[in-house]
Amino acid sequence: LKIQGDFFPEDFEKGIWKEYDEQGKLIKETDYDAPYKFTWEDVLEFIKEHEIDMNGDHFIVSRNFGYGKENISDKEPFWSITHAYKNKDLLIVHIIDGLSGKILDKYDQDYPVDGEYDETLPDMENE
Fold first, then answer.
1. How far is residue 7's CA from residue 104's CA, in Å, rounded to a whole number?
2. Which of 55, 58, 97, 113 has the smallest set of CB atoms within 10 Å of its CB?
3. CA distance 66 to 95
4. What is the pLDDT of residue 54?
5. CB of 105 within 8 A of CB of 68?
6. Local structure of 106: helix, strand or coil
């Protein structure tokens, strides 16, 4: 079995991934970009416009579905961009709608303890 596709270092697959069997026959294609109308190229433009350092120690881009929702739907894609503030001891997280590009949320996060991020999202009900 062979798999071909692009992978971003913080665990998201990009583009069309192709899976082949032992004989080299294509058996499956998955388009990981399909749900995201606000594309990776749009995210790169956002990063550029906001002068975010992509080489910073705590820079992470990830994508998922159903931000702030209990019932996750693949019809609600979002991007998450985490990076260090300039001149502050905090990280900032931008949550961007994967369809419209609208900023859904923006919040501060402490630096990770022992290099591990706190995977919990802010409590949406108390904001």
1. 25
2. 55
3. 11
4. 87
5. yes
6. strand
In contact, 97 and 104? CB cutoff 8 Å = yes
DSSP-assigned letter for residue 49: H
- Name the percent of the chain in helix, strand, coil, to the closest 5: 10, 40, 50
Instruction: Please state whether 114 falls in left (phi above 0), alpha (psi between -120 and 50) or beta.
Output: left
CA distance 127 to 120: 15
List the one residue out of 94, 31, 84 whose CA is nearest residue 62.
Answer: 94
Strand partners, 78: 64, 97
28, two tokens: 């499956």
Rounded average pLDDT per 10-residue block, the chain, 127 residues? 57 83 91 91 94 86 87 84 82 95 93 58 45
What gap in Å lies between CA 62 and CA 69, rounded to an integer?
Answer: 17
